[in-house]
Design goal:
Residues 1-20 are annotated as: Disordered. By secondary structure, the chain is mainly α. The chain has nine helices and four strands; from the N terminus they run αααβαβααββααα. Helix 4 packs across helix 8.
């Protein structure tokens, strides 16, 4: 590696570390009045040329939808089997998690991201063992270019975090949402996904109640 390349890598590492040390994420840059995208977020021109072309705007959606309401169980199992065997993932609708609960979580997460820098700094960590962690780019120090995103991660199952571990903005709604989402996952895996794949859920998914 040339001296120039080494210096460039060292400078980038310093810029990444300086960004990470703020514990404020991308929103912190915006709040600070940044007027241009910093270099750590820019992809090298060669990498951009290698990206695949986006699909046409009028291309049909390719994500299968599995509706849990109304259809007989055998039909739902067949849809799950078909989606898992072709696309590999699918969207579940009419699943029983109340819309207002989902909306409440989204509103709480938005409050957190738009809230005080102090609350973000308290939650900021790259320790994967923490059940609740806020950070910007989980692969910040490995990727060729950082993504313009911040993430609040909450590990809600099988052992949810204690209420005091959750940021105040989501503390009132996240436990309830986690319980509802976990119940859906257990029911869906036990009654539909495992049947579609013809396997025993406890053997393949290590479910914990």
């Amino acid at each position: 590696m040339s001296a120039t390349g080494g210096d460039g890598n060292d400078r980038r590492r310093e810029e990444l570390q300086a960004f990470d040390d703020t514990k404020a994420g991308v929103k912190g840059l915006v709040d600070a009045g940044v007027t241009a995208v910093p270099a750590i977020f820019r992809h090298p021109p060669d990498a951009l040329r290698e990206l695949p072309s986006p699909p046409p705007a009028d291309a049909p959606a390719a994500i299968p939808v599995v509706d849990l309401s109304g259809a007989p169980r055998e039909e739902v199992v067949a849809r799950v089997r078909r989606a898992a065997g072709t696309v590999g993932f699918f969207q579940v609708v009419n699943h029983g998690v109340p819309d207002e609960l989902t909306a409440g979580v989204l509103a709480g997460v938005r409050r957190f991201h738009e809230g005080s820098p102090e609350a973000k700094r308290r939650a900021y960590t790259r320790d994967a063992a923490r059940k609740v962690r806020f950070s910007s780019n989980f692969d910040l120090f490995q990727s060729a270019a950082a993504g313009w995103r911040d993430t609040l991660f909450c590990d809600l199952a099988p052992d949810p975090p204690r209420p005091e571990e959750l940021p105040e903005a989501v503390r009132g709604v996240m436990p309830e949402y986690g319980a509802a989402a976990t119940a859906l996952a257990l029911r869906f895996i036990a009654h539909f996904y495992s049947k579609g794949l013809e396997c025993r859920p406890l053997d393949y998914f290590r479910l914990q109640h």
